[in-house]
Write a structure and sequence with these properties.
heterodimer, A: about 425 residues, mainly alpha, B: about 160 residues, Rieske Iron-sulfur Protein
């Protein structure tokens, strides 16, 4: 009798479990495919992936790490919003509260801060990887454009977040940053006025940056990340076609092997054709891809915690518009621009950033050759790689100079002295 | 009627193309209008910041030959032999406060130097420090108007 009740209870629980998650722990290949396809959250993965995708030395997981950092930033940012008040003196006091009064407040703030810095760096490295492997070539041109927009959004999010602590560091970095924006021709002053909500950085500015930082830019980011990932899912990872197994290479000799699927009433076109892929080159995303993603997410979270327990996010004294610190520096990722602006306002503040952004946006439509895609430093892309590497290195060099080699009055200093 | 109006489903097209275009145009116009309104909405009509026109004290507070720094106003007020004048302390480079050193001004942030009239002596500042109009209120107070920039020839004779 009790046995029956026990079995029935188990069956009942199993029914509930099935109503939530229709596939159990996958034991067969069919279930492994179903696990990916039937879940809203997992179906951004294909059911099966090329072995090439799993090679860590091809992507270094930089796109994945950027996405993980975005999730970490969203979660910690939401938590910080429970204590943060976006009004000048109150804002600074809530930072002090987070540091000294709120349990785990300082850890959350440190994780948020260091993740933000890391994200700027990782997104930049991700762009370098995509360039060096020629992965922006057809059919992925537009996804490169989306990626550039995501880089700009990352910088925008970081910049708007920089003001929120309302300390001297924040205030003067934003002063310098918005003044660089004001150098834009014709509309520069109006852009600055709109951004600040007035002539000077004050309560309106803080509120504007807060709304941009907490709502507008993250929503735009979420939308573009979805588009970015969806297109990767549709186009596949670059380079998989270069790592064809011997059977696939024969496809050039024999008639192309394609399967056709009739889509019946869905489409007017009679059929969609999908290239037949070599099943031997592919493994199931469950568990091979998922397992690696989990490990990387864990590693990122562990590193963030260690860094956040050792290094404190900076918080200087409260913002004082009458007292300029010497030197006053923009956030580090804009110090390359500030270094250029220290030579010429027009060149550093307008010409270089505009040309850089435009060049990045139209790059895949200028460099249209399709050879050398999907491999690191392909010899046929030597010129493109050299130009890109030189520009990227120059930019990093300028940031290093602005960060470490510039002291009071923007004079040259040696960082070890 | 041509056959392309009748899809494979056999049902007639529920909407004429012209009506579809009209609807699309209407929606587009509404979107543009909304964006324009939002843009205007974001331009503040009232600024809760210090007034751009303010009194800095009685003229007698600024003795002849003196130069006074008003940190809250980010402004220098001078009283020379031929009258009063005011020069902004906001560096035209990236907005730091310049310091009055010797006869000129120096910016602590990026090393810009200006002469006694605020003209650039040494970069990276792209233009001269701003001069603002001074006037005398009925109660003999010196009044500065930040919305009224003037040339370095400006002097207020008290």
């Amino acid at each position: 009798m009790s046995q029956t009740i026990w079995t029935r209870t188990l069956t009942w629980f199993d029914g509930v479990r099935r109503s939530v998650c229709r596939v159990g722990w996958p034991a067969t290949d069919k279930d492994r495919a179903a696990a990916m396809i039937s879940s809203l959250f997992l179906h951004i993965h294909p059911a099966r992936v090329s072995r090439h995708v799993l090679k860590p030395t091809y992507t270094f997981a930089l796109g994945l790490i950027s996405a993980i950092l975005f999730v970490v930033l969203s979660v910690t940012g939401l938590a910080l919003m429970f204590y943060y008040v976006p009004y000048p003196a109150e804002a600074y006091r809530s930072m002090k509260d987070l540091q000294f009064v709120v349990t785990f407040g300082i850890v959350l703030r440190n994780i948020h801060r260091w993740s933000a810095h890391a994200m700027v760096g990782v997104v930049f490295l991700h762009m370098c990887r995509v360039f060096w492997t020629g992965s922006y070539k057809r059919p992925r041109e537009f996804n490169w454009v989306v990626g550039v927009l995501l880089l700009l959004l990352t910088l925008g999010l970081s910049f708007t977040g920089y003001l929120l602590p309302w300390d001297q560091l924040a205030f003067w970095a934003i002063t310098v940053g918005t003044n660089i924006a004001a150098y834009a021709p014709v509309v520069g002053d109006q852009v600055k006025f709109l951004l600040l909500g007035g002539h000077v950085i004050g309560a309106t500015t803080l509120l504007r940056f807060y709304v941009l930082h907490c709502v507008m830019l993250p929503l735009a980011m979420l939308l573009l990340i979805s588009l970015h990932v969806w297109r990767v899912r549709k186009d596949g990872l670059s380079g998989a076609e270069n790592h064809a197994s011997p059977t696939e290479e024969l496809a050039g000799v024999f008639p192309a092997s394609t399967k056709t699927y009739g889509l019946m009433a869905i489409s007017k076109r009679p059929q969609a054709s999908v290239e037949a892929r070599d099943p031997n080159d592919e493994v199931f995303a469950w568990p091979h891809l998922l397992y690696r993603e989990l490990l990387i997410a864990l590693a990122v979270i562990v590193v963030l915690h260690v860094v956040s327990l050792v290094f404190m996010a900076p918080l200087e004294e409260m913002a004082d518009p009458t007292r300029t610190p010497n030197p006053a520096k923009a956030p580090w990722y804009f110090l390359g621009l500030q270094e250029l602006v220290s030579y010429s306002a027009l060149v550093g503040g307008v010409v270089v950033p505009t040309l850089l952004a435009l060049a990045l946006l139209i790059l895949p439509y200028l460099d249209r050759g399709t050879s050398g895609s999907g491999r690191w430093f392909a010899p046929e892309r030597r010129i493109a790689n050299t130009i890109f590497t030189a520009v990227a290195a120059a930019f990093v060099g300028l940031i290093v100079i602005g960060t470490f080699f510039r002291g009071p009055n923007w004079a040259w200093v040696w960082p070890w002295k | 009627m041509t056959n392309d109006r009748v899809p494979p489903s056999g049902l007639p097209d529920p909407v004429r193309r012209s009506l579809f275009a009209l609807g699309g145009l209407g929606l587009g116009a509404a979107t543009v209008g909304f964006l324009a309104a939002t843009f205007r909405f974001l331009v503040p009509n009232v600024l809760y910041e210090p007034s751009r026109r303010f009194a800095v004290g009685p003229a007698s507070d600024f003795p002849p030959g003196s130069g006074t720094f008003l940190p809250d106003r980010r402004l220098y007020v001078f009283n020379s032999a031929d009258g009063f004048y005011a020069i902004s302390s906001v560096c035209t480079h990236l907005g730091c406060n310049v310091k009055h050193i010797g006869r000129g001004f120096e910016c602590p942030c990026h090393g810009s130097q200006f002469d006694e009239n605020g003209q650039v002596v040494h970069g990276p500042a792209p233009k001269a420090l701003a001069w603002y109009a001074l006037s005398l209120s009925p109660r003999a107070q010196l009044v500065v108007d930040l919305d009224q920039p003037v040339s370095p020839e400006f002097r207020l004779r008290a």
